[in-house]
Amino acid sequence: MSAVFNHAVRWEWLDVNPIRMVRQSAKLTRMPIVLSIEQIAALLRVLKEPTRTMVFLAVFTGLRVGELLGLKWKDVDFQKMEIHVIRSIVMQHAGDCKTEASRKPVPLDSRLAKVLWNWRLQSPYPTDEDWVFASPHSGGKLPYWPGSLYKAHLEPAAKEIGIVGHFGWHTFRHTYATLLKGNGEDVKVVQELMRHTNISVTLNIYAQAITQTKRDAQSRVVSLLLDKNEEKPSTEAYPEAYRTVTDLQNSGGDLQVFDKVGVPDGI
Fold it and tell me: Has this prediction a pTM greater than 0.85?
């Protein structure tokens, strides 16, 4: 917007840029939600095609909705197991992808490939030149409108399974990045999979650590001190006493030690 006003000043349509001194906050007005694996599974169970396959790809590849709708069957290499993101659809017009990084091939897990292949067998538009998500309303000449799919299928399904918050197509991209990070993947790998030009975008916007991950990370830092404390009580009966609750549960240890002091809600 500022560039538009600067252009007006250059052409002497305005004396000054009225928003030159406006300060913009980097604070998010709404925190995007991240779906759990259980919510994803529930959503896939209630969705019908083609929205089901779109969601399957979106949540496990991180593709933007415009990139999903911009796919043609010739862009999917079932031999090399990768997707070539060539174009993006905006307002039913095909254009270049967001950045050079966005055009990098996307790996295709064999199970995702099977889902995509099954949709190709069902689709009335399965040739190489056809859109992967071609709309029958246009005779296959155009892909679906993302807003129409959202209103007709995605939004009702989300309400049915109880998803609340700021939910939309971009939720799946946020979820993918967060699950990757929470799964312990290297941040550089996450950046490559998300096809971000700058790694700070990956860290600052998409990778919302899940609550248990945050709790366990904090516990490991606390353990740096407490595990070396010479005056700490004997932990022979409970060798995991100073590690995370999650680690203790996974080890099959006795949780009675926590019952004696009480465990805050949510742990």
Answer: no
